[in-house]
């Protein structure tokens, strides 16, 4: 099955997901991506909240008779070590090593960042829907302080309203 | 002996008196504004006094073209606070800026003629778009660098004799600023001033303010301030570290790391305008790539790394600038690390001069050896 596009046909590996035993899948040895601890906790939370929505991307290595991960190493680690599942959903690409390495970087890098202002609006929206700070922190992977700062709609100047002005000083030649 | 003496006034009362004094003494007053919080407060204090006396003051903004949209909005706000008391001096002239993130495009010529299609934004109709001074007498500090930011300021100031230039420097920001605002009277017996010749002086009426005084004033008078401050606060930065800087030069390129989160459209336009921007975005805070704080693992010493960087330096026209400069400097790891940083940031302009001295670590070891 392929998707027609103006730049040619696009493969649809996501339509061919298979479930394989967890021992059949191994990490690659070149992935430069590192997910910090707090985001690993968020990733686990995301899998629990949303289910496992995207299969791991792999290639099949004939010599080893195993599937080597191209993308999804951290989700794999959570399923295997934290959630201790027995099977994994994967798709299998037919990439050579050059294409595999490039694909790993493409999957990691081609992503956006959250605009601070809109993120603040989102957190404010959740709070207005009655979500507690604790839940916002847990489900969005934030520290309390981040939730507090994002909810601080009034801006930085407001924080100084009760401040008093400092004493003035002068340079004096005291002989 | 010179001493710092506290007086029985708040910094706000004192600043108002200082500004009154300046209005009494000077016919021409120009406030430099950057879009930042300090110059916002200074401009407001000065405009209020101008309004009271029914006088007009200049608001001087040297527009680097590659700035936050929030900065541009802040400048527009200040220019329109007291229009009847304001002489807008919004300069959108051609000058050279260092671009620390690219070997290929080491400089940006902002507002470059013929490139208006790629400018970050179009010029303001009321801006000053051509240098209003005699080109024949124009001064340039560094020929390698070309006509730069400080040259534009110097030539602007020279073009306006008998003027008080007000700047929002504060002593608590850094030791350098402390010296600038508290040493040697530049005008009469005023320590917070510098004589710049031609009957003109630079004055720093906010020299004793702390950052919380600035914010308190902004809150009390409900002044608008650049949104970048709120973004930085929300991103978890400390109050003291929050400042609105330039975007691309050798001391501020790390601002590119957060730019897409703060102002995605500014970032997209910047990507089109200039090379190296995505490098600054990805590696702006990386200890090895751009900052040369850690030695990459493939190199045994900073000296070896420097030789490697010099050998592979991509611009044959500029390579000799580094070779000549380095040949006059000591050959040790302390110096070599700084040379590496110059090479990585393509600093042929020498904006980050090398502290050329014996390696302090080796010196300490020597001293201890002698004692033991």
Structural class of chain A: alpha/beta
How many distinct helices of chain A?
6
- The total count of strands of chain A amounts to 8
Gyration radius from CA atoms of chain B, angstroms: 23 Å
Instruction: Give the fraction of residues assigned to helices of chain B.
Output: 40-55%
Share of residues in helices of chain A: 25-40%
**How much β-strand is present in the residues of chain B?**
5-15%
**Unreliable stretches covering 5 or more consecutive residues of chain A:** none
Rg estimate of chain A, integer Å: 24 Å
Helix and strand succession of chain B? EHEHEHEEEHEHEEHHHHHHHHH
The strands making up the biggest β-sheet of chain B line up spatially as 4-3-2-7-9-8
Content of β-strand of chain A = 15-25%
- The CA-CA distance between the termini of chain A, in Å, is 91 Å
Q: What is the average per-residue confidence, as pLDDT of chain A, rounded to a whole number?
A: 90
What does this structure look like?
- The complex is a heterodimer of chains A (175) and B (372).
- Chain A is of the alpha/beta class.
- In chain A, 38% of the residues lie in helices and 23% in strands.
- Chain A contains 6 helices and 8 strands; from the N terminus they run E-E-E-E-H-E-E-H-E-H-H-H-H-E.
- In chain A, the strands form 2 sheets. Chain A has a 5-stranded mixed beta sheet. A two-stranded antiparallel sheet of chain A has the order 1-2.
- In chain A, strand 5 (56-61) and strand 6 form a beta hairpin.
- The mean pLDDT of chain A is 90.
- By secondary structure, chain B is of the alpha/beta class.
- Chain B is 40% helix and 13% strand.
- Chain B is built from 14 helices and 9 strands.
- Chain B has helices spanning 11-25, 37-53, 69-79, 149-158, 175-182, 211-220, 227-234, 255-262, 264-273, 277-283, 302-311, 316-327, 333-344, 360-371; strands at 2-10, 28-32, 57-62, 86-91, 95-98, 107-110, 163-166, 193-197, 200-203.
- Chain B has a 6-stranded mixed beta sheet with strand order 4-3-2-7-9-8, sandwiched between helices.
- The longest helix of chain B is centred in the first third of the chain and has 17 residues, at 37-53.
- Chain B is globular, with a radius of gyration of 23 Å.
